[in-house]
Design brief:
about 70% helix
């Protein structure tokens, strides 16, 4: 089976897609929190909205990256390892950019959670790089049929 249409590749693409959506959500959310407050259009619970995004996008993305790693250890597909390495580059870059946007957030919306979420997800964002490099260094296991 070719490298593009394997289960490991699909899981790696889903993982990078979830984290891409999390980064896009976080950047647009911080942009919305930095706009001037106009009367009745005040967000009442921004921390809860951020927690929902974490449980929908960020944590499943890390879970899929781990599942991709454990499935890929036997066959060592190159495509999955390259996607995981790209994933490990994308997530920290997005979180670093999101952490630069926290200075623009209105005082009414500033909370400890809102300000520290990008910093918290910056460090685990590097984990898929290690997964991808380890898979790239592995040799595929020969299957013996008797």
């Amino acid at each position: 089976m070719s490298g593009l249409f394997r289960l490991e590749t699909g899981l790696a693409l889903a993982s990078i897609g979830l984290h891409g959506m999390f980064i896009a959500y976080l950047l647009s959310f911080y942009h919305a929190l930095s706009r001037p407050i106009d009367g009745p259009n005040i967000m009442s619970h921004p921390t809860e909205l951020l927690m929902v995004a974490i449980f929908i996008f960020a944590l499943p993305g890390f879970g899929l990256a781990c599942i991709t790693y454990f499935i890929s250890k036997r066959d060592a597909p190159r495509m999955a390892s390259m996607i995981l390495i790209a994933h490990g580059i994308l997530m920290p870059l997005g979180m670093f950019y999101a952490s630069t946007l926290t200075n623009n957030i209105n005082e009414e919306y500033r909370s400890f959670e809102i300000l520290t979420i990008p910093i918290i997800f910056l460090v685990p964002g590097f984990i898929p790089i290690g997964f991808g490099v380890h898979i790239a260094k592995l040799k595929p296991v020969k299957r013996r049929y008797t």
